[in-house]
Amino acid sequence: MGVSTPAFVWGVILQLVFGYLWHLFPIEGRLAQSIAPPPLVTGFVTIDAILAGDGRALLDAWHHLVLPALALAAAGIGQTARLTRNSMVETYQKPFIEMARAYGFRESRIANRYAFRPALVPVLTILGLDLAALLGNAFLVEAVFGWPGLSRYGVEVILHKDLDAIVGTVLIISTAFLVANIVVDLLVALVNPRIRLAGGRA
């Protein structure tokens, strides 16, 4: 369901269940009307609240972030869970898992220490690529939740043919994508010792 259902559909479902039915989370906006926004520094409410030391605004901003974040991440969570399971199944067929069992190690130790780390390499690679899909799907989610985000702004400037704003939006998204993939490469090298050793020999 997570992989096949569009993000904006998850947004509507989460609004109906957690907003209208259970009244646990707000369904639109970045801050409640009763809370004064922090001084504008970066344009990101959470960062500006941290810089201003406004804990109340920070908690309320996080409260508003829960449903949009879940709606946007649902497809990635489903894909990552499926890939992690398949990678774990493949790793359990490796000879070093049989050796660990022959030594009498506990199953929890085998799963956490010897199977999960090698299985995490393809998962981390996919997580880096998923960022592009998250940025692409964010426009509809932002529209559903009334969130004035970067993707929604990018679509608006495209419709208004504002070339400078389009270039700026593309540069910001590209930079975020590059930084995320660099971080993923560093994490893969940290998880997989063979990559570190090969890099050291090179």
Give a quick precis of the structure.
With 202 residues, the protein is mainly alpha-helical. It contains eight helices and no strands.
Walk me through the structure.
The protein has 202 residues and is an all-alpha fold. The chain has one domain (7-201). It is 76% helix and 0% strand. The protein starts with 6 loop residues before the first helix and ends with a helix.
List keywords for this structure.
single chain; 202 residues; globular; mainly alpha; 8 helices
Low-confidence segments: none
* Coarse shape: globular
> Mean pLDDT, as a whole number?
88
Number of domains: 1
What's the SSE pattern? HHHHHHHH
Specify the biggest β-sheet: none
Number of strand elements: 0
Report the portion of residues in β strands.
under 5%
Helix content: over 70%
Rounded to the nearest angstrom, the radius of gyration is 21 Å
Structural class: mainly alpha
Q: How many helical stretches?
A: 8
Question: What separation lies between the terminal Cα atoms?
Answer: 44 Å
